[in-house]
Batch of 4 targets.
Target 1
Amino acid sequence: KVTSGGDVMITDSNDLSVDVIDAGAGNVILTAGGAINDSADDDALVNPSNDIDGGVIDLTAGEGVGNNNRLEIQSSTGDIDITSSNGDINVLHQATAAANTATLETGIGDIFFTQTGDVSLTVDGAVTTHGNITIEMTGDVATPDTLTLSGTQTAGGGDTYNARTSVAGSISAGTVTADTIDFSTVNGDIN
């Protein structure tokens, strides 16, 4: 467990197993030569505890992020950058910031990014060399939210790009490259 009022920066040439990192308003920067995973398998819980709380969250791995046990994170600034050389990315962002921006990239592997919290999400780039991409956002009926796909959006290697909103929310997309593209909304538009 790491608790800090300032930035938290951890580098490991192997795997990183995360129990709790709470940086308050500080930024969290994790770098692993292997994978970065939750130390506990709590994927089935409805509202799991966050593994990482901080301002900017920047995760860089060689072999996946949340690929064995999904990572649950909360960025108070809404600024998330997750990159892996290869391997899956599987992250739940339990958002509190009014505006959230995520950049997601891996080589051979799938991306699965879910945001809850009834606030809008901009994915400013989601890229796989060979793998599926799934982006999910839980919107808000009272104040409709938007899932915006901007920048480079590519599910490489003949794979599928899925984007969905649940409860309420629209999808606004620029250019998306994939063999199969599947967008779905509840009480929202697709542009």
Note: The chain is about 0% helix and 55% strand.
Target 2
Amino acid sequence: AIPTASFTLPPTNCLTDPTCFTDASSFVNGTAACWNWSFGDNTNAIGTTVCHTYASAGTYQVTFTVCDNHGCTDDTTMPVTIYVKPTAIFSLNDSVVCANEPICATDVSTGNGDQLTTWSWDFGDGTTSNVQNPPCHLFPIPPAPSYQISLVVATQNGCVDSARRNVVVNEYPNADFTWSVVCEDEGMPLA
């Protein structure tokens, strides 16, 4: 009996990420002897598990051929769709603030032709948000010298991208003075 060629691939495949294909063939008589892959973009590979990074989004026909130690072969072809990745970008109202001054983050990400469906914010102080444009944020007092705000966006096809920005949070200066009672014609010493 000839082998039965079969392979698996991840459910989501995104541009610039490696797409990995794994042999799932069965052999009745004999053992596996060769594995040949054609990725549908004029590139090939050999091996039981191979990874390939596509140069552009689209649907490709991947052909996988196996052979056994008796020289019997089988092949199968399956489509793989490569989706565009989003571009995560956000703006801040400022990157250096004093304590008790809010930082406002605004999403300006793009799906690059695909619909954005999730936003995951992390303000670096344990505060997170899952809305596109979160409310302005106050950092705890006393603040750390800096915080890293990060945003991860995902498309309807499961492709993700992230962006990070650092924010410096300064403590307010503590204005303080002392005074003493003086007579009308004397200068007032301030300390």
Note: The longest strand covers residues 58-68.
Target 3
Amino acid sequence: NDEVFRYDENIGSLCVIDGGQVRNVFGGGYQGKIEGNSGVSIGTTAGTSFFAGVPTILRSAYGGGEMAVVTGTSTVNMYNGYIGYRYHADAAENKKYQPELKLNADDEANLLSENGNLYGAGFGEGAVVMQTQVRLYGGTIRNGLYGGGEIAAVGDGERNDDGSYTVNQGGQTNVYMYGGLVVGDVFGGGR
């Protein structure tokens, strides 16, 4: 996927997931600031298998960091693969990718049912990006596609003592869907 980030050479971090299985993916850091841009690339357009272009992300993918700041743009491009699914090598060909709903074998409440999302921004209090670019070319997202983050900000501001907010720098989200499947909903903002 050479075309992934050619429009911008100022990348502070880049996370490429072309095969295999991971729990979550973050383009930014964990409570660490990225001076610049962050990027995530998932799968390849010519993907043929779990190990070659069709990865799985068990929970969710984020363009930004976890409780961390990205001072520039976070970009997420998904070409192929599954978000919110687990790969089962021994299953029949049409059953290899199954929804990941249970935290463990004793989980009767399907605690992971709200996972399986792709976010342009980050996760958690203190997670901030200035702008997002999210492009879905292919693959399957079990729940939702979001231009913003999960309990996170796009743009910079602060809460005043009286409960009002001051915006220091406005943010912007951009979501483009060219292919693929979002089982849930698509949002320009966050959650």
Note: The CA atoms of residues 148 and 190 lie 4 Å apart.
Target 4
Amino acid sequence: SNIIISTDKNILRTNQIKHALKERVKELECMYNISFELDTTENFNKALKNSVSYLINGFQYPEITFAHFEVDGTIYGDKECTNKKFVNILKEDIIVNKKKRGIIRVCYSKHIPFLKEEKKLLIEVSALISKIIEKKDLKIELEKYLGNLETLVKEKTKELEESKKMYQNLFSNAPDGIAISDFSGKIIKAN
């Protein structure tokens, strides 16, 4: 049989470590869930709306946590987070290509400090959303360029056809005889 000798201090420290590990697991699940949501949901607005609950559950006290993402003027989640009644608000800007495109706000309804890991979580979620917005913007820009390229190809094809018709008319209606031959002297075309 094993004999366990422990002090209250060791038990307390063990419980603190267990609690801290549990919180890190919640934060990792939060990041995974938001990442999965943003990568797999076709509708970006719906993905952001769904991700708010993942963010709330990633915090130490989800039962007193309110949050929202604000992107390009649209708020996804609890709009109350902008309310002055919250004394403890954690914010992180959403920056895309060195330009502020939005903000993430997380609020506690009680005066409880945020963990430094929660602050890091918010920074990472902001970076993740920024990358998705950048990817979305690049896709839109690429589609625009593709459309412009298709239009340009059509225009150039039309110009080439018009030029070909003009050349054929000039060749066919020339008052003088014109003959085109290859290098061996064989006549290819004549009017």
Note: The first strand starts at residue 65 and ends at 71.
